[in-house]
Amino acid sequence: MSVTNFPAGSSSASTGLPITKVTVPALAEMKRQGKPISALTAYDYSSARLADEAGIDLLLVGDSLAMVVLGHENTLAITVDEMLHHTRAVRRAVRRALVVADMPFGSYHGPVGAGLANAVRFVKEAGAEAVKVEGSRVEVVRALTEAEIPVIGHLGLTPQSLHRMGGYRVQARTADTARQLFDDAHALADAGAGAIVLEGVPREVAEQITASLTIPTIGIGAGPGCDGQILVYHDLLNLTFLPPAKFVRRYADVGSLIRSAIEHYREDVEHRMFPSDEESYHLPAQEKASALKKA
Ligand code: KIV
């Protein structure tokens, strides 16, 4: 296996321009300047490095990795230790994007001090630059912010609330629930959240919340009016095995590409077409005669 490390210096592989690290305050500045924020999930070194080199602003080590990488039915089973393992791999790959780690289900739902201790692990042990928490966890957001850990909120369709919601359903579809979402977003912002992911909500609601906040919103299934957009890496590239949600746009069919490349490899092996002589090592000519002589 050949491994290419980052070249010396600090310019982008694709543009050659100097790299300016994306930070949480930089996201707010992007909102002020009306510059859309691009965000994507990433779960390992190669996905994160490719996304970073492609210029994505924010990389989320989402707990969706429980489903798309580890094959769980939902996100609930993943542990802090598993999330740390993947966050470290992403951190090693990234030079420019903001690296955000998702706090898994159960890691911030009890006493605030326990949530804080888990969040500290993401910063100290995995190099996360912010953590994300789902739901209206105002006290958690406040405590983490006071402990100098930037927090991204996540409202609307929050997958960790699967059982309470009774399935993955679009949220805030009535005037009352839309108002509640608006209030929750403002409460998180007041508690210090650096940005808020809005998932699975009507675009009109997301637009109104976005317009009323000074911190950015990052939408997924929340229409075009958010300050940024996020997609799951495997959805964008068609590396999943389920029909896509309405809001997913497939930018490439990498799943088909991989399957056909692997089929081609298998056929070559079965027909003794791989490896070729050029792909083989050779004994130096002067060694051949004596090395292969019977003792
Ligand atoms: O876990 C995840 O991938 C997420 C995004 C969908 C926002 O939370």
Task: Explain the overall architecture.
By secondary structure, this protein is an alpha/beta fold. It folds into 2 domains: 4-252, Alpha-Beta Barrel (TIM Barrel), CATH 3.20.20.60; 258-294, no CATH class. The protein is 40% helix and 13% strand. It is built from 12 helices and 8 strands. It has helices spanning 24-32, 45-53, 65-68, 80-93, 112-126, 138-146, 162-165, 175-191, 203-212, 233-236, 254-270, 285-291, and strands at residues 37-41, 58-61, 98-102, 130-134, 151-156, 195-199, 217-220, 228-231. Strand 4, helix 6 (138-146) and strand 5 (151-156) form a beta-alpha-beta unit. The structure holds 3-methyl-2-oxobutanoic acid (KIV). 3-methyl-2-oxobutanoic acid (KIV) is lined by residues 41, 60, 62-64, 102, 154, 197, 199, 220, 230, 232.
Average pLDDT confidence is: 94
Beta-strand content estimate: 5-15%
Radius of gyration: 23 Å
The H-and-E topology, N to C, reads as HEHEHHEHEHEHHEHEEHHH
The backbone outline, from C-alpha atoms, is: elongated
* CATH architecture group name of the largest domain: Alpha-Beta Barrel
Question: What's the arrangement of secondary structure elements?
Answer:
Elements: H1 24-32, E1 37-41, H2 45-53, E2 58-61, H3 65-68, H4 80-93, E3 98-102, H5 112-126, E4 130-134, H6 138-146, E5 151-156, H7 162-165, H8 175-191, E6 195-199, H9 203-212, E7 217-220, E8 228-231, H10 233-236, H11 254-270, H12 285-291
Bound molecules: 3-methyl-2-oxobutanoic acid.
The site of 3-methyl-2-oxobutanoic acid has 12 residues, from β6.
